[in-house]
Amino acid sequence: MHNSGPPYDGHLAGEYDVTAHEVTCRQFVELVTDYFEGALQPRTMSQVEEHLVLCDWCVNYIEQMQATIASLRELREQRSPEPPDSVLAALRARTAAEP
Ligand SMILES: [Zn+2]
Predict the structure, then answer these.
(1) How far is the CA of 21 from the centre of ligand 1 (A)?
(2) Is this prediction's pTM over 0.90?
(3) Cβ-based burial of 11 (10 A; exposed 0-12, middle 13-18, buried ≥19)
């Protein structure tokens, strides 16, 4: 169950020469909402984009987030107060066909 976590989480800082401007996956997950809302500072945004070039895990994470957001938006748009006419027509036809 530990395989689903971010591959880079800051613990690698001692092993690699991680410079202060790099964004870790953990930081990225915290920033992702602002990223989607376009609320990041331009500097932070470019750091995030740099990280995405290097990190498949976070690209995957973004794709999942985008899919979730898109399906939520779709649900909201499809919600209507009344059933569509085609459903009502089908119900009426069915009722009429019964003995
Ligand atoms: Zn990452």
Answers:
(1) 14
(2) no
(3) exposed
The amino acid present at 16, given as its one-letter code, is: Y
Instruction: Give the Cα separation of 69 and 93 in Å (integer).
Output: 37
55 CA to middle of ligand 1, Å? 5
What's the mean pLDDT when you consider all of the chain?
79
CA 74 – ligand 1 centroid, Å: 28
DSSP labels, 31-88:
HHHHHHHT-S-HHHHHHHHHHHHH-HHHHHHHHHHHHHHHHHHHHHHH--SS--HHHH
pLDDT tens for each residue of 72-81: 888 888 876 6
Give backbone dihedrals phi and psi of 33, rounded to 5 degrees, phi first. Answer: -65, -45
Distance between CA 67 and CA 72 in Å, rounded?
Answer: 9
What residue ranges do the domains of the chain occupy?
2-97
Single out the residue of 9, 57, 63 nearest to residue 36, CA to CA. Answer: 63
